[in-house]
Fold these 3 entries.
Entry 1:
Amino acid sequence: MYIFVDESGTFTFADKQNAWCTIAAYVLPESKRRPLDGLVSDLRFRHGGGREVKLGAIPEKDFVRFLTDLRKLGGMAFALAVDVSQHRRDEIQRHQQVQVDKIAQNIDRMIYEEGRRMIADLANGLGALPLQLYTQLVLQVELAYTVLKYAPLYYVQREPIALANFRWRVDQKDRIPNRYEKAFLEILPGLLQTKSLRDPMIFLKGADYRHFQRFQYEAGAAPTYLKDTYGLDVDTSGDSTVNVGKIINDDFRYVDSQKFSGVQVADMIASALRRVLRSNFDSPEEVALALGPNMLQAPKGETTVRLLSLDQTGHPDEKAATLVRLIGKYARPMLKE
């Protein structure tokens, strides 16, 4: 499967309310790559002169029609949003320092100098990120794990062969990967592996996971360093322990969005969601209704679009919350009927 990722917004602090920033992933089985290229190509020629077209250049009704056609391909969008107007600078600094300290406390536990140096560089790299990039990194980690937790469960019921590969295509902002992009790729596998131990991926009993087996440790073969070195009470004896690092590093690339239709779709979904939350469409309800069928119903107690905060204060705007519930109401069910 392809996982295309892009974001909308700068994640910088803002005084104005409803300063939403969003990150979206569009997941698509490889068998549907060509139909997606055709759908996006048609949109580009109608509204972008054959070049990459941004949401602002697409009439609202045409974009709704595009979302309606998009859902027929069988792809799935995942998205997270944060209202940075509710972030206090000192709280985000504290959040960042806590994460840096958690990484740094493992330096002395490493047996070899190379390992100690790697952990120290990781902690320093995370701590050096500007706060807006740190906020973006936290959301991208959450988004990646949301994809890992639910996309395989969805597609194992519908197209099991999609689990044979995980091809990550993330929008690259510069011609050469910048400091943020390097830090993200370095820290992502470790953070996701830790999250997977606390909140394991869900497996459907009796489903066809043959194509996914190369991403699973054999029974008793999972690494024991988390227990042996860090003293964590982790059960790695089962037969479904996932090698998350291998899923991330299977095929991860920062790419030019102009060359990848899927990244353009992720960009449009992230931008559309941001505008929905800010009520910047003529009819945000109509766009929300069109977004819903391209997304997945959330588990009980959660929302299809996750609204996150790195701070502990404030509540989302009620209009925005209502639109998120509307998206969830028309989202696709996880279990195949």
Note: The two ends are 22 Å apart (CA to CA).
Entry 2:
Amino acid sequence: MRFNFQAPSAATEVTFHDSVESIDADCALVFVDSAVASIYGGRLPLRGEVAELPGGEGSKTPENLIWIWERMARAGVRRDSTVTVIGGGTVCDVCAFAASTWKRGVRLNLVPTTLLCMVDASLGGKTAVNVGGKKNQAGTFHPAERIMIWPGFLQSLSRGELLNGMAEALKTAVIGNRRIAEYLTRENWTEAVRECLAVKGSIVQEDLMETGRRKLLNLGHTVGHCIESASSYRISHGAAVAMGIPFAAEMGGFHGFAEDFRRTAEKLGLGTEIPSSIGLDDILSGLSSDKKTTASGRTWVIPEDWEHCVLKELNAEEEMDLLERAWPR
């Protein structure tokens, strides 16, 4: 199975594979998540120079970025070279950032190994590193030329890591295709991934640089990123997004959808309540570094119902009023 996404300045081919051995990692340099290498290293068709690095938010740092650049220098990566990254969202994020800036941009292939990365992080070209404990403060747009998906990687994931990806997939269901929730319930991962990429791809093709409709993909992320940071990343990205979605609905006054979403999420095993250890002050602190902030205010994604989300720009006073009204007492 294969399909293509074509944006004005970039094209990405997505291929689905029946075995890990059929993945083509023939390139100048391969970066691989060390946990993936420990499980699949003997089966991955790795050729050329290989560098391992750990996954997790702790890898998305400026210091690690310098280490990745140094590995590219040692491997002699040229501007026309291809770098392949095999791992989850954090490894793909930081290595893709490095690829986008090395020699002002080298060719990139991604092999996502987590559900979250398969359904969302791998497609669309967003790269990032965390700075000062804040999420994704430095980043670029650098779409991969190829995304190679083998659903078999999911068999080795913990239940928590699967839930992390299911939350991001459920976000996509809210934005554009409620059937995705049904695929998740049946654990039909291949169809869930395919449909998530179809929804995201249709949006990204229209708005690669996130000047308009692509902002919808930030559903649940505005508060979600604050929750992650406030927990020192003990709360995973997906879990935080699952909390952020009904909260955004409550901010917009769409209480019925918020409850419907909570019921659906709970059936999948996803929690939606913000921990009592996190206060509104923690959210406000996180919002101060939110990337969607402009001089006129901040853009929020408000889910009114399944497959119906709107963008709403709020000034500081409006935002504070809605945050206080929606914050759990």
Note: The chain has twelve helices and twelve strands.
Entry 3:
Amino acid sequence: MSATDAGTITYTVPKRRHPVVLFVTQQPLGAAGLVLIVLMLTASLFAGFVAPYDPLAVDYESMLGAPSWAHLLGTDAFGRDVLSRIIYGARTALVVGLASSLLGCTLGAVIGMVSAYFGGRVDMLIQRLMDILLSFPIIVLALAVVAVLGKFVVGGIDVNLIIAIAVPMVPKVARVVRSSALAIREMPYVDAARAAGFSDRRIIFRHIMPNVVAPYLIMFTAFIAQAILLEASLSFLGLGVTEPTASWGLMLSGSSADFYQQAPWMIVFPGVAISLAVFAFNLFGDSLRDWLDPKIKL
């Protein structure tokens, strides 16, 4: 606000900054995690141009080669370039992580909204089913789903593996979304929509769903890290991605366990890649929660 010579008062409207700029300035740690995510996403999308070698190319003359200018991160027991396999492994991790998190969080959100909206016996039955799923450890539940469904590989990715990783996410997301939807269900505009004769489906997806987007996005980003770690664990156990597909968990198993003393780079670098990916998504997810939650901002 300022006064002119004529005595009139003018108001200066502050310039609104872009949401991305606000996020970077208010959440620098989340921005650092986002940078790592973008780098990993870029490397996976352009793996054919970024990777120095074919990740499946076998070179028996270079087996167990130490890091050098020719192979920056060394080679494995088959002479395959470790750096190239890590870059292509990022593609596997992101595809499985994003797909399973999207499937699990979306299904959990729908179940949570339906449970909260209808209440009564429907709510009780759904929540008891969620309790049963929550009673199993994540890895045990994923192993059970993989064992039941078997393998269905499309483009080198096991579709049933994505389902197995998504299933343990459903009850957690359903609980969080249900708690938010219970409060929204009692809002006057929801009662007005019922009085106007709108269908239950319209009320759920037009009036309740937009108000649970924030917790949905927070859990979606957080569960990507969990999905990447779970995919690596299942691949390490031989129940996830199979050879010769590049996978970080697969790179830690098999011959890597046999030659870890002779060629420690076969284990160290894939482990660092997994840690950085999980760290980046956790940083971004926590910062996104702090940025979107008005209670934390107060």
Note: The chain has a mean pLDDT of 82.
